[in-house]
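Annex B.
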Amino acid sequence: MNILDGPSVVRHPERHTAGIRLVTGFRGMFAVRDQLMKELYAWLDDRGISHGETFLRLHVVAMESDMEIEVGVLLDKPLDGDGRVTAGVLPAGDYATLRFIGNTRRGSGELLNWIRAGDRRMDVDENPAGDRFGARYEMYLTDPRTERMKTRWQIEIGIRLER
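GyrI-like domain-containing protein: predicted structure tokens.
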């Protein structure tokens, strides 16, 4: 993993999104992510909608059972969803962030360790059925359609901090 920036705290405004949510197991999450990306890009392309970076948002993290994930894109303005594609927002707030190239598991671990070491608190409801995050995302700053090698992707992980 090659760290590009951070870890640090960044204040983000509310950001409009379009995405597809799904419940899946941890082991199949990345294959599902890739399939949902293709479906979302096709939906946007069919409607001529331009967009910013693609993200994977983890709504509910339950490593031993099912997780609720969302594959989405950032938009300049809100839009109406249709079918499986829904409109949404990444909420405003202070986020612990880390930008890097490489392995998302290592990047996530690095950021979580930094958060805990600094005695920061995440916006999360921790419970046995799965941790529900106010906002936890992996933003793909490299377009997955043009760079197929995931080890070369530039990624930003963000976890909203408690207010």
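The CA atoms of residues 102 and 150 lie 7 Å apart. The chain has a mean pLDDT of 91. Further annotation is deferred to the next reporting cycle.
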